[in-house]
Design brief:
The complex is a heterodimer of chains A (111) and B (109). By secondary structure, chain A is mainly beta. Chain A is 0% helix and 62% strand. By secondary structure, chain B is mainly beta. Chain B contains no helices and eleven strands. Classes of the chains: A mainly beta (111), B mainly beta (109). At the A-B interface, β5 and β10 of A face β4, β5, β9 and β10 of B.
Chain lengths: 111, 109
């Protein structure tokens, strides 16, 4: 089975940096996704990591360490519109179309 | 804009009724998966369809069923609705990554 943990809530100030951690315990590994989900909306894709290291995409970066079962999503220069839930998801080793999600981390950006 | 379209966007049903939710993709990918997301939770995998056959299923009872059509669009059917079925239902297609549609909000009263 898959066990994916991430913090429930985080609060940060506009312009600051926030790091959302995700740890996973899975039988095999086939890639890790991060999604952003605004209240009342569907998840939108942010990043995908399958190899160790840092992937940078504008203000957002994602890091993966397969040996530690650990990933983080880094949000820089926070804006009010970044207030949302951030979902960590692991792809099933035997099924590319099946994701197991954490419960999500709600990030609140304050002025 | 993911190119994945779901309908209806919102609906309310009574306990015991049946519901059909629909999904289509502009990209023509041949595998579609469905997820249920309860309030405050991450999405849970229901099942997936490949070339009109179910070929993967999560921990959901048989009253959750689906169809995939020759044009790769799909339906999710839920029979004998229960209050706990109230959730956001998402379909997803896979290209370079996995894209979700806007979802269908189902409320069971």
């Amino acid at each position: 089975g898959q066990n994916i943990d991430q913090p429930t809530e985080m609060t940060a100030t506009e312009g600051a940096i926030v790091q959302i951690n995700c740890t996973y315990q899975t039988s095999g590994f086939n890639g890790l996704f991060w999604y952003q989900q605004h209240a009342g909306e569907a998840p939108t894709f942010l990043s995908y990591n399958v190899l160790d290291g840092l992937e940078e995409k504008g203000r957002f970066s994602s890091f993966l360490s397969r040996s530690k079962g650990y990933s983080y999503l880094l949000l820089k220069e926070l804006q009010m519109k970044d207030s949302a839930s951030y979902l960590c998801a692991v792809r099933d080793p035997g099924n590319d179309y099946k994701l197991s999600f954490g419960a999500g981390t709600t990030v609140t950006v304050r002025a | 804009e993911t190119g994945v379209t779901q309908s209806p966007t919102h609906l309310i049903k009574t306990r015991g009724q049946q519901v059909t939710l629909r999904c289509s993709s502009q990209s023509g990918h041949n595998t579609v998966s469905w997820y249920q997301q309860a309030l405050g939770q991450g999405p849970q995998f229901i099942f997936q369809y490949y070339r009109e056959e179910e070929n993967g299923r999560g921990n959901f009872p048989p009253r959750f069923s689906g169809l995939q059509f020759p044009n790769y669009s799909s339906e999710l059917n839920v029979n004998a609705l229960e209050l706990d079925d109230s959730a956001l239902y998402l379909c997803a297609y896979s290209g370079n990554t996995i894209y979700f549609g806007e979802g269908s909000w189902l409320t069971v009263v």
